[in-house]
Design goal:
Elements: H1 5-39, H2 42-49, E1 51-56, E2 59-60, E3 64-66, E4 73-74, H3 76-87, E5 91-96, H4 99-108, E6 113-114, H5 122-125, E7 128-130, E8 135-144, E9 161-163, H6 169-176, E10 180-182, H7 189-198, E11 204-207, H8 208-217, E12 223-236, E13 239-241, H9 245-260, H10 263-271
Parallel strand pairs: 1-5, 1-6, 9-10
Antiparallel strand pairs: 2-3, 3-4, 6-13, 7-13, 8-11, 8-12
Length: 292
């Protein structure tokens, strides 16, 4: 009866070999696909998937926000990236998040780009890549109208409470001058303004045009733009993962075309009280060097 076992053994061994070969081929294929994906550029992956995933706050008027009574996301930065996606023949998907989450989401691959009035700095360039700027401005301070919150210069920030995102340029500067930072996460403008008005905080350092818009949108608060605090010319751009050179090139070409055909100016005047933020403002400001 021994002869009965030999074909069985041979058949079993053949099946095992075929199974192992199949598994090996599948594993090799998956590894190869994964390797190809990791080797492909950010632009190639976006183009293949057909969708540009954008990180933005949805709470920053007039850069990225929801109109009252509407779920639709809009704003200067939002409409710029919508136009970019359209010109690059891509669908667009927005992921709303706080500013402090955006840079980590870029590096993790959760989003492809971030557009949220993000200031370009040498410090940030070490970690992420930027498009060419599409907005120029400078930094200002919102304070209480009655007494300027006891602040007449940046040096007077010492011991004051400044409202802002933990990793923003404005919070960095406030810290340098000795202010305590109160962070809010992804809060809307009125929350920041209300707390200064009530004395819970003393000052908001931020972009001139954004501050101008915020004060106009919420006139019920007894607040003003400080007349004497103007510092650091700034530029805002789209942020992307480091070494995304081809993606950067595509976006830059599109922004340049939008600048030349007047699209940037049109969008700027629509969202920034008829100001053209795509051009550098002619104003004298104090330059403050950011500490590393």
């Amino acid at each position: 009866m021994k002869w009965l076992y030999k074909p069985t053994i041979i058949i079993c061994m053949t099946i095992m070999l075929l199974t192992l070969t199949a598994c090996g081929s599948k594993g090799d294929s998956e590894n190869n696909n994964s390797e190809k994906k990791s080797q492909s550029t950010a632009w190639e992956q976006i183009k293949n998937e057909g969708t540009l995933v954008v990180g933005t706050a949805g709470t920053l008027y007039a850069s990225s926000y929801h109109k009252k009574g509407s779920d639709k996301l809009t704003g200067y930065d939002v409409e710029i990236v919508r136009e970019i996606a359209q010109r690059l023949n891509l669908d667009i998907k927005f992921e709303e998040m706080g500013f402090d989450q955006m840079l980590s989401s870029l590096n993790s691959g959760k989003i492809d780009i971030a557009a949220n009035d993000i200031g370009v700095t040498d410090q940030r360039k070490q970690k992420i890549q930027f498009s060419m700027p599409y907005k120029y401005s400078y930094c200002t301070a919102i304070v209480r109208a009655e007494d300027h919150s006891g602040i007449e210069s940046l040096e007077d920030l010492k011991g004051k409470k400044a409202a802002g995102a933990a990793s923003s340029i404005y919070s960095q500067i406030a810290r340098q001058f000795g202010a305590e930072i109160k962070t809010y996460g992804n809060a809307t403008n009125d929350v920041y303004l209300r707390d200064v008005d009530l004395g819970r905080t003393d000052v908001i350092l931020n972009d001139y045009y954004l501050q101008l818009q915020a004060l106009k949108a919420f006139p019920k608060y007894d607040l003003v733009m400080h007349p004497d605090i103007k510092f650091n010319q700034s530029s805002s751009a789209i942020a992307m993962k480091k070494n995304a050179d081809e993606l950067q090139k595509k976006i830059n070409e599109t922004i340049k075309a939008m600048k030349q055909d007047g699209t940037l100016t049109k969008l700027s005047k629509q969202f920034y009280l008829d100001h053209d933020v795509s051009k550098k403002p002619d104003v004298d400001v104090r330059e403050v060097e950011l500490e590393q």
